[in-house]
Every structure is written in structure tokens, then in C-alpha cells.
Amino acid sequence: MKRLFSRAPLLGVVIPAWGVEDYLDDCIRSLLAQTHRRWEAVIVDDGSTDRTGEIADEWAHRDSRITVIHSVNGGLGAARNLGVQQVRGDYLAFLDSDDVLPSTAYADLVGALSESGSDFATGSIVRWEDGDHVEPPWMRRLHRPLRGARVEDRPEILGDVFAWNKVWRRSFWEAAGLAWPEGVRYEDQPTTTRSFLEGTFDVLDEVVYRWRIREGSITQTRASSVQDLSDRWETKRQALASVRAHGSAEVEDVFVDRVLAGDLWRYFLLVPGASEAWWRLLRAGVLEFWGQRSLVHSGLPPVHRLAGWLVEQDRRAEVSSLMEWASALEGPPPRAQDVATGDWRLSVPHSVVDEATVDPAALRLRDHEV
């Protein structure tokens, strides 16, 4: 009687690398420690000028599952796409070269797909900063377990925009024509959005990724540049176009109000020191995406909903005052109750914003915010 042997599926791992000589060893060690042992990886040295390429070559000499491509610098999206062309595998994953994986990450993700037959799987993450591992509450909320889901089952999952906490079935990746945008920052969102819109997916509550937050890796200097903000708007534009083409009004409402708006508070904080060109670009984007509906209806916290409304009204000085006032608060912003209606609203000092000139909807608190 012929015995049948099953093999674990082959996972192809793409590791773009640029300027990570201090971190690449930790990253590769975490890959070698995976309990899912059947994988192949390609490190794409994206024109590094430090020892990154040399370190990558050393790892390739130590483990035959690792290969290296040395390319001219083309950015993260181009490096990932080049890696996809070279790596083999039934499944596909992306690992940033300054981050690390928990030992069971790929076993959890590949195991879920093997059982469910879904097109891709996503797990939760922790931010690794100053030696601490912290799971963002919003990631924990998004990653309540699901199997074989569609985006209509949990539209807010579109807020899980990361490339590196997921494993795709290679056949789905190719059939959907997926690729990473090139020549633009924030390239994760358009591709992960298309994945959720076009495929079936598994959501795991296990932490599958440790995202190293490096000092200087995300800086106000970069975020306050016109080019950076332009890239942010462009990738939001691409993602929104995919959502609209999908044709679900419910999904689009959640996406616009809760996903697209979710990171705006970072930009509002930069208004006080930003250039006039940056301010004009910020306002243009806000009007493009929320001009018909207004950010007062978004999922932003109360102070940032007010800031968004002020941006819409081109009231930069008051946005600056509001952000400076809010950053000095030691607790939740003060609130007041309307005696006649019983409604609660933000209470902002007159020296910051003249409430009499503000749409009451921009000050109103929701039931869960009282």
C-alpha cells in the first residue's frame, strides 16, 4: 500500500531592505525561528549605502532558503514588487527588514488559510518601542476572529492597512493583479484595500508582528513636507477609488468616516509650524475627501472633529490655537451641557475658538463621549 505524505505549503517571504544594517540580523533571526519551517525568502537590497547588502549576502550564504537581489534604489513598493517576481511559494508574505516576527506568526497565518481556504489572512500587531510591546487598542478591536469573511462582514477592517501582518494565497494575489504602488509613500493602503474588497479573508486575534518604532523613522519633519502629504492624499485617493468601484454604500461610508479620516489628527497637530503651501494642500485634501459630508460626522475624537471643521472653513489660526491648547491638556477636554436640550458639547476657551462662530455639530459630543 502506497503511503501518502503531506507537505507543509511553501511560503514566499519578500524582505525589502534599505539602510538597516543595525536591524537586519534581528529580522532574519526571527524568520529562522519560525515554527512554520517551509519557507523561502528574498531580501531585496534597495540600493543601500551602508552594510545592509553585505549582511544580507552573509545570511544567504548561511541558509539556502534565503536569496538576495541587489537593485538600484526604487523605494519600498518597487522593492516589494521585484521580490514578488523572484520568490516562489504557495503563499506570499512581506516582512520589513527592521521589524521582527513572533515565532508562531507564519504558522498561525498559514494554518488558518489551510483550514479555511480563504484568499488571505491577517493578524494583530504590537508596536515595539523603548523595549515595550504594546498592542494598539484599535488593532485589538479590529482583530476579533473571523474566518472566510467578506468586507461587508466587517467594513472597518479596511483600517488594517499594513502589508506585513498578512499572508496571501499566491493564486489570489496573481488572479487579482495585486501589486504595490511605486514612487509614492504609504503604498500599503491601496493594495491591502483591494485585497479586502476582492477576496475572502481570515482575521486572527493572535499577534503576528512586532513593529519596531525607530527614533526618526516617522518624524514631524517628513510628515510636514508637502511631498509627504501629497503622497498620503494620493494613496487615500487610490484606495477610495477601489472602494467606490466595489459598489457598497455601507462599506464606503465606514471607509470615508472611520478609515480615511483615522490618521488626520497627526496632520492637524502639525498645523502650527507648517508652511503655507502645506496648509493649502492639507485643506485641499480635506475638502476633496470630506467637503460634501464634513469631518464633523467622522470617527475622529471630538477635538479633532472640530479641528477638521475649522480646516474646512480655512481658519488656520484657530486650528493652531486649538491644537496647542489640546496638547497642553492633562486629561479629556472640558465639556458643557446645554440646559435647554441636555446635549453635551466641547467647551473651548473663547481665546482659542469663538464657539459662537462654530457650527454646533462641530462641538457636539456623542453619547459614548459623555
Automatic annotation (TrEMBL):
Residues 13-147 form the Glycosyltransferase 2-like domain. Pfam families: Glycos_transf_2. InterPro entries: Glyco_trans_2-like, Nucleotide-diphossugar_trans. Coiled coil: none annotated. This is Glycosyltransferase family 2 protein. It comes from Nocardioides astragali.
